[in-house]
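Troubleshooting: if your tokenizer reports a length mismatch, compare against these two reference records.
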Amino acid sequence: MAQYYKLTAIGGSYNIQNVEAFVEKRIGVTYERDFAGSETFTPEFRDLPTVINAGETVVFSIWVPKLPAPAASQERYRMTWSFEIPEVATEDHSGFYRDQIFIIPAQ
């Protein structure tokens, strides 16, 4: 499964730093990153450069491997991603982007 995104560098070039994506499993009422088999479900950024040059548009994706079938009706997974663009950091915005983009129903 993949989610696609587009970024355009307007007014200058931008660095992409501290890129991270991971899957969490709901255990009880909380989500946890370290669960049995979690290392086999590591999401992967594809085509996200470390620099986006002024005027350039890039399309990138985040791929998530197929997750196991739920052992219980309440078992759920979610993917969280984040990255930082220091050039857009201001007093009001850190330049850090994070989004829990979707709840993944197990297949």
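Reference record two:
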Amino acid sequence: MRSDRAYALLRPEVLSCRIPPGALLSEAEVMRRYELGRATCCAALHRLAQDGPLRAAPRQGYFVSPVTPADVAEIYTLRLELEPAPALRRAPAPRRAEDRGDRGVARHRHR
């Protein structure tokens, strides 16, 4: 669907701040910049407004929502939840003392 493609083009531009927070996006500008038809453009902008990165302003266009301290805190919370799991899966399993050659330590543990 064309509106999904348009959404996929616009969303990273907004979320990465390549289109800065507070910027006004008009339908005409987005249509021209991304070579989109009006219906496709409107659907993508409307969906972005529903998802939160844009705020609709009647008779003006769409404003890019500002990044708030709460947004930054949420991002870091999510990163802490998501990133340790892959790191732990990649980390080598801890080796036992016997496997490392720490014979003295291993002998002491078995007494």
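Descriptive notes for reference record two:
- The chain has a mean pLDDT of 82.
- The chain is about 60% helix and 10% strand.
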